[in-house]
């Protein structure tokens, strides 16, 4: 299964250990950092923030990073401040307040339009959850988009924990207009066999522009052969843990599926990491920020479970409306318009960083 690239992987892993103790020590939050030979997103995050969660760094540098596992030496990255703001810029809270004030000054139309009904799942921190301000990152982005770019559209938000019901029942029956938020495949890519979920999302729904790009990692024991996998082909044959109800689309797109993997589907990230620890699974696959928070919650360190530094997935999340909704395209176009303005103004990043700051404060308070 493994090939000549294995030797390179072993040497690179050794080099990374040395670098994390040396050059990486110069990295600090709230500065710009020039990538050195052997740096990875995880080692940069650990040196700057003390955590392997590099999603915030990726968010702040999305315009210059195309592959989180392939950082070119000499690339200059912006390392966000501890509060999520960018070096030498407004804080997230200041920028959000300014945009809200600007939007409030725009004259509203007197023509009545019914509130757009949004539905999200609960307990999916930091993306959709009632425990965070505004309902989490994706919920805040959705509701804010309806108040930007001249939209000024009222809305309601409900949390329904049965995720499958969103696409199978609630949107098709018209109980809600928009569901927050879903991994949307590349619907032009037919190089792999589409699952029923991929068929459905491409053919039955109208998707917004990409709202948030999620980095997914592959996590295993430090001594496992799979920590040395340098491409997705090397992961075939593994027993892989993916939480129940979580989309397989992002894995199918890179050639990993039920035909070449043995899959286990517990209900939580904690159970997936437990499966790796006990040998029930070789690899767990889910978001890097969820990995970091779950590791902290379980009291685990890199001596227990590590992220493979060579392979990762990148999935775009969007808002979905069902094609049978007569206003589906209108509502999605409205949200797209707002999202584009939010990216241009910087409010998109400010909302993300502000919510991650709030989540980190909750996690730190809980651990003290």
UniProtKB/TrEMBL annotation:
Residues 31-79 form the LysM domain. Residues 1-23 form the signal peptide. PROSITE patterns: LYSM. This is LysM domain/BON superfamily protein. InterPro entries: LysM (IPR018392), LysM_dom_sf (IPR036779). Keywords: Signal. SUPFAM superfamilies: Periplasmic binding protein-like II. The keyword Transmembrane does not apply. CDD domains: LysM. The keyword Signal applies.
